Amino acid sequence: MSSSAVLTGYYRYTDIWFEWPGALPNPDDGVVLKAILAHDALVHPDHPLHVDGVDGVQLYVGTLENGEGRLMFSLKQVDYIRYWLHAMGMTEEVIPLPYSDCLLTNGELRTVSPITYANGGALKGALKAIDKNNKRLKGTNTTLSHRRTVFERVRTLWAEKKGVWCAMDFESWEMEHTMITEFGWSLVGWKEGEMVEDKGHLCVQDYQWYRNGKYVAENRDNYRFGRTEMVRKKDLKARIEKLFSVLEDYGLVFLVFHDNSQDIRDLKRLEIPLNNLMHMLPENTPETGLFVVDTSDLIGALLGDDTGNRRGLERTCRFLQINPEYLHNAGNDAHYTLQAMIAMASGSQIDQQRDDRWPNQTVAGSLRVKLESNGSDYESEDDDDDEIGPRLGYDTKTGELRYKGNEAETLADVTGNA
Questions:
Q1: Cα–Cα dist 380/371, whole Å
Q2: Which tens digits make up the pLDDT trace of 362-383?
């Protein structure tokens, strides 16, 4: 044991629970430590590691370079426990930290995400569940591994409630995609700890008679979240640049798209400055930067899809129990894209969230959710019409609805802000 503390890092739950108490010089200290780390003790609201507003205990799940997960305590938690025990008179001296070799640093972890357990039984079963998912990861290809990493980074970054997350969408004439007919946005940001929301829908007046309907739905007149503003073609660039200047005031900017390639191409065609636009999300939350988040990657990760296929926005929303209306309206698409991102980012760790949303519907030996063949449940304009997805929120063994989704929730419900 070494008493020299490393400034940042995480300890494996197994090392702290199974190894640390037995390695202490004083056996009596080990008994006390074991008691404070017991499953039922950790989740109690009076436990020294209890976090206000959290039901149970908050620990962490880290992803190793090979994609495997580890349940962890933070160094801060471990350090606090040993000083708290001494301050309460339960140990004669401050017990030493575990060996520094046991510490996992940020450089050894792809992602770190908080995870909560409401009761001792859930915590006790956590290691078994993580081990089960690690076995499923064997042979996972790089596409799914990358998507899973992105999913957990988005969860971590969203939980920080910093910067601004802005979903954007363009619509164009179906006969000539360079003719942009609509632009929409929906954003959530934080300034001085307060949540800020904004959204809008622009239609290009010059192209108002260029209507879709043959290959793509025509819904420019059906914006559901405010008033549509008509702009001249020559003014569209300036209006979007004005939006970007608002975003830049936040410092840290996440541009949220559903399948980003065409929307980013449209931004570049309009010569909107995208200086230092990054498709790789940061490991830690920076103060500034411009980053891309793609909800088609997030839903692919959650469904365990290793093919690289991208599902349409309508199907993504329905998988998440969001009922979209009048898609192919740029303002509506931006709104539902942001709602889909929030639904996933504010949920549990990816494997726990998958099992909560679609209980007992993961294909044996894999991370892939079983998708049923399409019936007549609803119509969709997505390309993947041969599948309707899992039975949403239902446990296939019990038939009980376990995950009610967020179709009736407001943004404040999802984010935890009143």
A1: 15
A2: 888 888 898 764 433 333 444 4
